Amino acid sequence: MALSLAPFTSGQASAEDVDRSAGSDFDHTPLTFDQDLAQAVDASSESTIAQASGSSKTSGAAAAEASGPSQEALAKAAQNPIASMISIPIQWNATPNTQWAPNAIDPDADHDKVLNVVNVQPVFPFKLSDDWTVVTRTIVPFLGVPWADPKIGVTEAGDPYLKRWDQEQRVGIGDINPSAFFVPTMEGDFTFGFGPTVGIPVSDGPLGSGKWTAGPAVVGVYTKGPWVVGGLVNNMWSFAGDEDRADVNKMLFQPFINYNLPKGWYVSFSPIITADWENEDNGWTVPVGAGVGRVFKVGKQPINMSLHGYYNVVKPEIGGEELLGDWTIRTQIQFLIPAG
Fold first, then answer.
1. Is-contact 272 244, C-beta < 8 A?
2. Which residue from 38, 131, 175, 312 has the highest number of Cβ atoms inside 10 Å of its Cβ?
3. Helices (H) and strands (E) in the chain, counts
């Protein structure tokens, strides 16, 4: 990624040049993209609930079924990203010790900021036929991004120069990411889905890419006993948008391993691994960690809550520097709406 310092070193620079450099030459989206597209396993299919509940039914089980799926069944169901159950996850990702820009841009920049991403991710299933269901998921990210505005001075000769950067937290909505998965009706422990994913630019500057993006997405899920295991992968390319912004070509891979415990508890491994193929330095983000969660009911409303911690073993570089913090903490509350 090219970092242009020309507006700061040329005597012909203007305040407009400096501001434009901050907004377009330095693209902050590598810090936000990974989190914007963080796709927690948020929903469940009716077949998964049926498998989790078991096939034999006693009179007590029938009575329990009348009040809805059990905690254990819902916990398994919530770990399946291709689902025919409506759910509304709200996920908060916080990455402390993040630096807003390379020191080549701002010598005073330090790892003392927090990158915050709150994703609202409603999931809705639509039955197309007895053989196919389409599951839609729309990620709406609310971002708090470390950023800075340039403060411009004027020399005695009337030439502008950069006095300093005033660091701040830029807050707003990031690029919206709808996806649709076509899921065939299958018997057995394995299921899969495939479909398109799209990025809609709704923000300027560090909050968005400024580009329309699209690409394919595939997911597979295996459920057996207490285990729910699988993975999701997609790749998105830019095809339209602001010509002054960098092209987008990014991959996301999320493996997930869940082990379910009694009373709705579970432990989970679900890192978000991403690669920015346009990054000339290092575009990979590889976190390692795990989390714990539980499904419970408040009145009749099933809720899934979880807490994860991930250490970013590999982090993307911008201008030869790693700006992302070492740790990302993910918390989520998910409202589950079973059919019936």
1. no
2. 175
3. 6, 17
Q: CB–CB of 321/102 below 8 Å?
A: yes
Residue indicated by tokens 């998965």? 181
Give the largest CA-CA distance in the chain: 91
Confidence of residue 266 (pLDDT cuts 50, 70, 90): very high
For every residue of 272-335, DSSP letters joined together read -EEEETT-SS--EEEEEEEEEEEEEEETTEEEEEEEEEEEEEE--EETTEE-S-SEEEEEEEEE
Report pLDDT for 340: 57
Q: Which domain holds residue 130?
A: 6-337
Integer angstrom CA distances of residue 94 from 41, 85, 126, 148? 18, 28, 33, 19
Query: pLDDT tens-digit profile of 115-145?
Result: 999 999 999 999 999 999 999 999 999 999 9
Mean pLDDT across 103-108? 90
If one counts the domains in the chain, the total is: 1
pLDDT grade for 67, boundaries at 50, 70 and 90: low
* CATH assignment of the domain containing 64: 2.40.160.40
Residue 100 belongs to some domain of the structure: yes
What is the residue-wise DSSP string for 52-93? Answer: HH-S---HHHHHHHHT---HHHHHHHTTBSS-SSEEEEEEEE
